[in-house]
Amino acid sequence: VTGNFPTVTRVLLAKIPPSDGRMVYNYDDYVFHYVVENGICFLCMSDEKHRHRVAFALLQEIKELFTHKYGLEVPQRAIAFSLNEEFSRILQDRMEYYNSAGANVDSLSSVKNQIESVKDNMVQNIEQVLERGEKIELLVDKTDRLNQQAFIFERSGRELKRAMWWRNARWAAFLVVA
Fold this sequence. Notes:
This protein is α+β, with helices and mostly antiparallel strands. It has helices at 5-15, 52-70, 73-77, 84-101, 107-177; strands at 21-27, 30-37, 40-47. A hairpin with a 2-residue loop joins strand 2 and strand 3 (40-47).
């Protein structure tokens, strides 16, 4: 956001109640998420395509890191922006992590991705089984054809054997008579 980001942030901060809670505000193409705990407000901005769970996961982690580093008393007595220099590296690191990891940050998305991976794997395995089934069907067809050909070959072999036996019998009778 360029230009009016500080103004929008001030307006939003004025609207946020001091009681503990969390909420989402939409402004133009941006979504502002906030968490208030013990009088300290944690606010982040994302574009609409980001999921709320990712933004709230970032805010939860920032809240825990901030509270661990400063406790609850120091922020209440701190002058505005006095902790920026010290905490900005942590903020930058966490924002880069959540921006690069995207939807894989929260556990639900991670589980969904794992399920999708397993589903893809199962579909691939089923396709392979079906291909094997088709190959087995081809083998069964070939076996049936070979069985039929073997039966025909056996029958022709018997007929040939009989014909040769009669031919030999005629020759034997001809030789005995002559």
